[in-house]
Write a structure and sequence with these properties.
The chain has about 160 residues and is mostly beta strands. It has no helices and twelve strands.
Length: about 160
Amino acid sequence: MAMDLEELVSGEKMIVSAHSGGVLIPDSFINKRQHLKALRADYQELEGTHRWAFAKSGDDTFVIGHVSSGRYMEPLRKSETSAVYENVRYQGPILLEIGPLADARDQWELRRKGDFYQIGLKDSRFVVGLTHPDHGDSWVTLLDPWWSLDRLWLIQDVPS
């Protein structure tokens, strides 16, 4: 069952693709700037890299932070140290970036569809989706906001 938006800000969450069952994680277990992917794996093997925290940042928007790295989910910046974006575009990559920085594009809108959510970048038409939904691991990227399973996510408490 999908959680209310207010429940998202309490505790650590796991984000799972509705299409592949892949768990949203960084590309590697090293704390650095890196792309995100959805990996079909047992969460117990992911060394804590599957843990996310949602912080309310405005009217129905959230900043999504990666718990173990302290980095934030956002589109690719031109430079890691400034909130300058060269090209927020269709199939543009989503990375873990340092922050929070003033003027960062790190605010996400959550749109509920049954038990799942679309995660949409605020002030854009794009949502978080899979580039290769039928693979065991797929890069996570910005896509058009169709209500298809490769663009829907289950958000749940991290299992203990």
